[in-house]
Backbone:
């Protein structure tokens, strides 16, 4: 696409409104200057002014496209008629979901291709936004659809009344009876469960199923739309969704989702802090209220990530603060944000601090026996999991290829963009969480307490993947700003390269294939199985007696009955089925 050279006095539209575009694009000159890379820019959009109404309509269109795609996948899953306790039924269900994914993906891609033609190129930016938003919804909708298939015929959510599901439903019952709960546990999700139970007229044990499916379906849209505050559509899809692939967890969907939301919100806060000198006092006050309220809501839903993120974020804030020219406004922003955060979270924050010295996490599970520097994969915290040799044998001194690539991405990000706010924050958060991980891990033996230290794996892995993505992002920006080499035969006007629409088509196509493959693989993990994989969660939901003592539809057809929680006969059945399966843990019909 050919565009005129960038004018240093024009504005470039972005997802958060017009942004001033400096005349030069380069690395940050100092921590007190907001660099070009720290400003929101959207490639392939003409430098024209947009009114608030048009921006609002475009944002609304992305919201509708993303949530609509996720909803369509879940709706389609309810129409899939297979037996989830039969392995062939599971495969057929996944294939049915993939067929709908492929249909919607092909339509979106064709529209992007059509708008690459000269006569329709004016519509290309809007279509690209809608296509990227749709892809994000399709991914998490595919995973949620797989959960729908896995839980077909039962009213329970994943894990029935066992484990965390049982604990959350117990808290929800307590809230319904007393209107409150203990202050030291994040109150967000238990209250949402209690409200869902009241709205639907179902007991919390059954209402949990709707939340497992619904929040899983919204994982992609929420991740994408949060990162859209920072990145253009395809970059928000690539950096907002792909690094989050290992984090989607239908069993406890709200925990990792809060990590995916927290990181871009903190990055937005740091960018606002770095450019605080250009803001009026009123803008600083409004920003503080918005950031404080947003962080407060995230904290109330799941507060654990704040512990791992706090040291690195504080260091990054100290580095990026414009101490010479804007320290008063910076302190005002921090003060207002902190005050609003405390007001929103007061009860839970006080309860958490009050109980911090007395709470002792003694939940030792399989990951607490794993070599502590291994962070290449987060497999959850289910008890008794047997993933085989773990960590997997590594090719270089015990370090696997995936870890090596992630570390190369870390180094590459520092090499090409060490002064960018994103890289400074992500590296700082990674180092802080890394040090806290070993601090808590080193005290395990003496105190006989885990203190959730293995959960830092998720944040460390997420930071590494984001750093790798941002390394690519900044390198692409650098090359586009430099222009194509004469040997390549490309044409450039300003910062736009002819053929950028082809690049958008290629990127969207590749991302759709990745998301389809990952969504199917993740969804398959939650299909009913008899081993200690996440598939056991769906198996328990199918084989546990319902509250009225009856069995689920497919447990009846399975012909082995259903069982009350804690019945030893059920565990004997699981061992028998595991030995009889075609593969370890997989079910089959006799």
Residues:
């Amino acid at each position: 696409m050919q565009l005129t050279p960038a004018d240093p006095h024009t504005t470039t539209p972005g997802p958060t409104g017009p942004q001033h575009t400096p005349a030069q694009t380069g690395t940050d000159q100092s921590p007190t200057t907001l660099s070009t890379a720290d400003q929101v820019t959207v490639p392939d959009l003409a430098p024209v002014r947009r009114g608030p109404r048009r921006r609002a309509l475009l944002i609304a269109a992305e919201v509708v496209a993303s949530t609509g795609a996720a909803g369509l996948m879940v709706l389609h899953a309810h129409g899939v008629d297979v037996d989830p306790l039969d392995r062939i039924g599971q495969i057929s269900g996944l294939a049915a979901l993939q067929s709908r994914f492929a249909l919607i993906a092909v339509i979106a891609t064709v529209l992007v291709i059509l708008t690459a033609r000269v006569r329709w190129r004016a519509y290309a930016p809007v279509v690209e936004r809608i296509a990227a938003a749709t892809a994000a919804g399709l991914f998490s909708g595919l995973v949620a659809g797989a959960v729908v298939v896995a839980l077909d015929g039962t009213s329970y959510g994943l894990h029935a009344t066992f484990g965390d599901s049982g604990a959350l439903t117990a808290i929800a019952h307590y809230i319904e009876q007393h209107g409150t709960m203990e202050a030291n546990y994040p109150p967000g999700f238990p209250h949402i469960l209690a409200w869902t139970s009241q709205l639907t007229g179902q007991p919390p044990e059954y209402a949990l199923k709707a939340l497992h499916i619904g929040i899983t379906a919204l994982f992609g849209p929420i991740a994408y739309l949060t990162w859209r505050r920072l990145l253009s559509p395809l970059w928000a899809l690539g950096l907002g969704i792909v690094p989050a692939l290992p984090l989607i967890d239908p069993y406890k969907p709200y925990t990792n989702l809060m990590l995916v939301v927290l990181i871009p919100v903190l990055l937005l806060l740091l960018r606002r802090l770095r450019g605080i000198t250009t803001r009026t006092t009123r803008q600083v006050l409004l920003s503080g209220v918005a950031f404080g309220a947003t962080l407060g809501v995230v904290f109330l839903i799941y507060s654990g990530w704040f512990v791992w993120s706090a040291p690195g974020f504080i260091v990054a804030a100290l580095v990026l603060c414009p101490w010479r020219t804007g320290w008063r406004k910076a302190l005002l922003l921090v003060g207002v944000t902190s005050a609003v955060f405390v007001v929103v979270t007061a009860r839970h924050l006080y309860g958490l601090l009050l109980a911090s010295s007395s709470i002792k996490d003694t939940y030792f599970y399989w990951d607490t026996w794993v070599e502590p520097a291994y962070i290449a994969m987060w497999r959850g915290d289910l008890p008794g999991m047997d993933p085989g040799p773990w960590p997997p044998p590594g090719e270089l001194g015990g370090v696997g290829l995936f870890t090596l690539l992630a570390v190369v991405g870390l180094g590459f990000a520092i090499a090409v963009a060490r002064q960018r706010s994103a890289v400074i924050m992500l590296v700082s958060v990674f180092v802080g969480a890394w040090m806290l991980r070993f601090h808590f891990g080193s005290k395990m033996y003496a105190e006989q307490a885990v203190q959730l230290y293995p959960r830092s794996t998720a944040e460390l892995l997420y930071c590494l993947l984001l750093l790798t993505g941002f390394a690519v992002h900044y390198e692409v920006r650098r090359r586009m700003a430099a222009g194509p080499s004469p040997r390549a035969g490309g044409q450039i006007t300003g910062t736009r390269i002819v053929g950028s629409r082809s690049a958008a088509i290629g990127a969207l196509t590749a991302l759709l294939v990745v998301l389809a493959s990952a969504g199917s693989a993740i969804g398959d993990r939650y299909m009913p199985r008899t081993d200690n994989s996440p598939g056991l969660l769906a198996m328990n939901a199918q084989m546990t007696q319902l509250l009225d003592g009856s069995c689920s539809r497919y447990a009846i057809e399975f012909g082995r009955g259903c069982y009350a929680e804690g019945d030893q006969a059920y565990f004997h059945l699981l061992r028998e089925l595991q030995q009889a399966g075609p593969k370890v843990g997989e079910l089959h019909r006799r």
